[in-house]
C-alpha cells in the first residue's frame, strides 16, 4: 500500500482492514449532500473564505481527525436560502454519522458542521 495515504485500520479476527481516509471523506460528503437544504460543500472550515466545491473536489469540504478512541469528522456546508441553518446542520450530523458508521462499521466521535455560507437557491418543494 502507498505510504503517503492515511488509512483507518480496524483489527478483525481474520486480519486488518485498511480504509482510505479519502473513502471515508467521500462517504461523508455524499451523505451531507443528500440533506435537504444543503446546496453544496464549502472549502471553508474555520476562518477560511467560503467557496463552493466542484463535484470532483467534494472531499476537501470534509476533514477527518483521528483520536485515540474515535474518529471526528468536520464538514463544511453551504445552506440554501430559506432553510433554518441549525436544523439543516443537525440533519447533516445525523446523515453523516449514519452513512459513515453503516459503511465502515465503526463508531464515530463528534460530527462538527461548519456553515460556510448561504446560497441564493430557491428551496426545493
Q: Secondary-structure blueprint of this entry?
A:
Layout: E1 7-12, E2 15-20, H1 21-33, E3 38-41, E4 62-66, E5 71-80, H2 85-104, E6 108-119
Parallel strand pairs: 5-6
Antiparallel strand pairs: 1-2, 3-5, 4-5
**Discrete helix count:** 2
Measured distance between first and last alpha carbons: 46 Å
State the name of the first-level CATH class.
Answer: Alpha Beta
Could you tell me the radius of gyration in angstroms?
15 Å
Feature tags:
elongated, two-stranded antiparallel sheet, alpha+beta, Alpha-Beta Plaits, four-stranded mixed beta sheet
Please provide a written account of the structure.
It is a single chain. This protein is an alpha+beta fold and 125 residues long. It has one domain: 2-Layer Sandwich (Alpha-Beta Plaits), CATH 3.30.70.1350. It has helices at residues 21-33, 85-104, and strands at residues 7-12, 15-20, 38-41, 62-66, 71-80, 108-119. The strands form two sheets. Strands 3, 4, 5 and 6 form a four-stranded mixed β-sheet that branches. Strands 1-2 form a two-stranded antiparallel sheet. The chain starts with 6 loop residues before the first strand and ends in a 6-residue tail after the last strand. The model is unreliable at 46-51 (pLDDT under 50).
Quick overview:
The relative contact order is 0.22.
